[in-house]
Design goal:
Blueprint: H1 2-13, E1 17-22, E2 25-31, E3 37-44, H2 48-60, H3 73-101, H4 108-115, H5 122-131, H6 134-139, H7 145-156, H8 164-193, H9 199-226, H10 232-256, E4 261-262, H11 264-277, H12 283-286, E5 305-307, H13 311-314, H14 318-327, E6 333-338, E7 341-347, H15 352-370, H16 376-400, E8 404-408, E9 415-416
Parallel strand pairs: 4-8, 5-7, 7-9
Antiparallel strand pairs: 1-2, 2-3, 6-7
Helix pairs in contact: 3-4, 3-7, 3-9, 3-10, 4-9, 5-8, 7-8, 7-10, 8-9, 11-15, 15-16
């Protein structure tokens, strides 16, 4: 009877612990006195490579990867790692060259230690100036090329030691601008990958990858500075190769990121695709079609729109301004067709939807001119009515495809306020 009563008590309170087995891993599970569950691995027979891969993924990739991120994140991370590796190696070589130009003969380890100090001074001025270009960098994030320009000046400094201060100052100035550009573009890029509200996790894991490969790059730079790049001839051979790798990595990073904010180039491509095919492309559809070197190119299929010209150069007479305001009395944009292209100026408070409306009017105006309408008022009037008719369905599809329309990033373009 006593044994039976003890068994009944065990069934009522549950076992003290139990063992769960999954594949080659066994876990001891138990509840403590407060009712909290604890799990302990007691027998992990997985191959070492599987353990290392799982540990790496947990430290450098967001939880739930790959389902928790948008397409292209792995490609972006790979080239981001290569970018930081090459830039860190370049940093060691450029610092060693600066110290040589200053009359010192440092060891590679000294170059690494001093590199953080030499980034001050003129670099801060570059950061302050570049901070005013935040919208432009967010719109066209490609200013990492400035880092290579600054590093190149530092590497060349031993060839003209009498200009040490000038070259070192200008080099750090350019690198300071590149640092601000990199930081300014980081958030919109990570935001484009966040799929499940996991922006903080993405940011943390992305910075972990950057830090890891910066360390690897510093190690490679120290090794190069001790061997191949101990002479100026060696630096002139290796530095351009590292710089090419760095620029290529940045370019491929940007192509992999499906950035969903609207800028002039993306807006023109959306409108052109819509008029040509009747469908709106997604951010992933456009990422490999963007021109990172010449983002201000005119796209004829979208109305040959030019953005950013000063108001005074587009509207040079009061009568012209009054006529355009009458045509677009309820809009936050003005467009003016001249010499085969269309100038568009936005009000200060205009967002992505206003830009899309203006772009459609410009594209339809081009069609009306080709149809032989005599006056600009008739051309724009017909285009505006056509835009109003299709815009509700168009903007609905734009949003469904994942585009963020509350903001329009026209960089340093000129806007107006009344």
């Amino acid at each position: 009877m006593g044994l039976k009563k003890e068994q009944e008590n065990n069934l009522a309170h549950g076992p003290d612990f139990w063992i769960e087995t999954s594949n080659s891993t066994s876990h001891i599970c138990r509840f403590d006195l407060q009712g909290h569950l604890s799990v302990k691995i007691v027998n992990d027979r997985r191959p070492l490579i599987h353990k290392l891969v799982e540990s790496f993924l947990s430290k450098f990739f967001p939880s739930g990867y790959p389902k928790s991120v948008n397409e292209g994140y792995l490609t972006y991370s790979q080239f981001r790692a290569l970018q930081h590796f090459s830039s860190a190696a370049l940093s060691v070589l450029s610092t060693q060259s600066l110290l040589f130009a200053a009359g010192l003969r440092p060891t590679p380890a000294q170059a690494t230690a001093v590199s953080w100090i030499l980034k001050d001074g003129m670099q801060h001025a570059g950061k302050l100036i570049c901070s005013g270009m935040g919208a432009r960098m967010d719109s066209e994030p490609k200013t990492d090329v400035l880092y290579d320009f600054g590093t190149g000046l530092e590497i060349l400094s031993p060839l003209c030691p009498q200009l040490f201060l000038e070259l070192a100052g200008l080099g750090n100035f350019a690198k300071g601008m590149a640092v601000v550009a990199a930081r300014a573009t980081r958030l919109p890029i990570y935001s484009s990958f966040a799929k499940e509200g996991n922006l903080s996790d993405l940011f943390a894991k992305g910075e972990a990858i950057s830090t890891l490969f910066n360390v690897f790059g510093l190690g490679a730079g120290i090794q190069l500075a001790s061997t191949v790049c101990s002479t100026m001839q060696g630096k002139l051979l290796v530095a351009p190769l590292l710089s090419a790798i760095h620029i290529y990595s940045v370019k491929e990073e940007m192509r992999a990121a499906p950035v969903n904010t609207l800028n002039p180039q993306r807006t023109a491509m959306i409108v052109a695709d819509f008029l040509k095919t009747g469908r709106v492309p997604s951010p992933a559809d456009l990422r490999y079609r963007e021109n990172l070197l010449f983002p201000d190119r005119i796209i004829e299929e979208a109305g040959c729109v030019k953005m950013g010209r000063p108001f005074r150069k587009v509207i040079d007479r009061p009568s012209k301004f009054e006529r355009l305001r009458a045509l677009f009395s309820n809009e936050k944009f003005l467009i003016h067709c001249k010499n085969g292209h269309t100038d568009m100026i936005l009000e200060n408070s205009a967002g992505g939807e206003d830009a899309l409306r203006g772009w459609l009017v410009a594209a339809f105006s081009k069609e009306s001119r080709l149809a032989g309408m005599p006056s600009e008022e008739e051309v724009i009037g017909a285009a505006y009515r056509k835009m109003e008719k299709i815009f509700p369905s168009f903007i609905s599809e734009v949003k469904c495809r994942g585009w963020y329309t509350d903001q329009f990033l026209d960089g340093n373009g000129s806007r107006f306020a009344l």
